[in-house]
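User: Hey, my collaborator sent me this sequence without any context and asked if I could get a structure. I don't really work with proteins. Can you help?
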Amino acid sequence: MRIKKAVIPAAGLGVRFLPATKAVPKEMLPIVDKPTIQYIIEEAICSGIEDILIVTSRYKKAIEDHFDRFVSLEDHLRGKGKLDLLQIVEETGAMAEIHYVRQGVPNGLGHAVYCARRFVGGEPFAVLLGDDIVRSPVPCLKQMIDLYEEVQATIIGVKEVPQTEVNKYGILDAEPVREKVCRIRDLVEKPAPDAAPSRLAIMGRYIIEPEIFNILSHTEPGAGGEIQLTDALKELARQKDMYGLNFDGIRYDVGDKLGYLKATVEFALERSDLEQPFRDYLTGLLCSTGT
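Assistant: No problem. I've predicted the 3D structure and written it out in structure-token form, which is a compact way to encode the shape of the chain:
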């Protein structure tokens, strides 16, 4: 079955970026001049996704507004002859078939995914977390979809992390199948470094079989008193085959301040209109500080 639907959980409070996120959704914080969630949606579209559900909350209306038409702005730009900016605004308002549902209570990632059950129905579907942006020649999700078409099973996107950082992630207990692909036996949430079964960490990209919804319906609250998606995936792995894909690409954790800054700098250096003056500025800054 082809993967046509994607779910983007975006209901979190973004407390790591306070005070900026007191009034602005963290998913709308820009990397250069584009909101972080737009990078996620562009990845989904370039991977062949047709319908996208964004799971929001009460204070996230700015996300809906961003992907809606803004006719008065379009008219203003057209009247001023700013056709390059007009094209950007029009394209943003017509990117994809985007739907919304609210997560009434912030009850964890598992609960946010469960909110998508009516949208998904009985199909396998993709989940893309807004804190993870991946830069790669072939979109990360497209790599995972290609593997799904081969194995017809749940796929989790992973990367190896240093042993000292395994306690920050969900970690796979898995056996290798071939280069970059492994079969998952179990998942361990944030293990101690000396107890981790591997260094393969979950990186915010999933293709999940619809049986997950039945499991989530009776998953008890776990870490932090919330319903954890990892707990439900552990149960699903006992029932059906599940694979990890060590995808090609550079992953940025834009939910972390340092990761956000790294993404901003590296994406700016890829822009033809910014690369040289920004590089000159950075070089001058390093020279002025004597570094």
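In plain terms: The longest helix spans residues 275-289. You can pass these tokens on to your collaborator as they are.
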